[in-house]
Amino acid sequence: GAFICEVNGQPNLGQTTAAHLYIPLIRKLVSGSGRVPTVLVLGAANSKHWSDAILNAFVKRGLKVGVVSQEHVVIGQETVREGKISSYAGGQMLAMSREVDAMAFVINDEDLLRTGLPVARFDVLVFAGGSAQSGQEYPKWHAQGGVGDLLLSLLPACDGAVIKVPGSGLDEHAIDLHTTVDCLTLDGSVADIADKTVELAVVCAARRDSLLEDVEV
């Protein structure tokens, strides 16, 4: 008789002899940088209005977007989760989906201060206002010169731009102290601002993929 103590279905990629193979293999399996265009909308009084507008803007560009909001989690035109869910849990659902070409989070609570982001970085942050559900304002958002703890915790992870909606109370000078990305003020309807936001996110993602392609393997 005999005992089988280990079965190797295939050889390992060793750090010593095969470390140079990791990058080309990953590039074969994952397109671009491995990241998708990602948008955060912070403090929108009507989260459904914003989530619908962001979804439509991505669809117009031929991208299947996953959206996490106060009401649901949507992938494309399909609702995959009804009811309130944390941005972190909803983001984990999107990150696990192979159908998603882009992601958007419409954030109306301070849970991210406890959980952190479900993604390492994102492309565009829209500060839609300080008003939450029931018309109340978040107590921390107007501290520190008009920018609260939640906003400050998100800024270092932003790669593309911060968009300010008129009347949101965002202090651009305070933003400049915590990020090097551009801070833009966009006026117009929610649909217009969402369209420009998505355009910026797609451009930022394309630039990131292009820079990666220029790096020699």
Major sheet: 8 strands, mixed
Looking at the structure, what is the overall shape?
globular
Helix % is 25-40%
Q: What's the rounded overall pLDDT mean?
A: 80
Strand content: 15-25%
Helix and strand pattern? HEHEEEHEHEHHEHEH
- SS field, number of helical segments: 8
Describe it for me?
With 217 residues, the chain is of the alpha/beta class. Helices cover 34% and strands 19% of the residues. The protein has helices at 22-29, 47-60, 87-95, 112-115, 143-146, 149-154, 172-176, 190-213, and strands spanning 38-42, 65-68, 72-75, 78-82, 102-107, 122-127, 158-164, 182-185. It has an 8-stranded mixed β-sheet with strand order 4-3-2-5-1-6-7-8, sandwiched between helices. β3 (72-75) and β4 form a beta hairpin. α2 (47-60) packs across α8. The longest helix has 24 residues, at 190-213. It is globular, with a radius of gyration of 20 Å. The model is unreliable at 130-147 (pLDDT under 50).
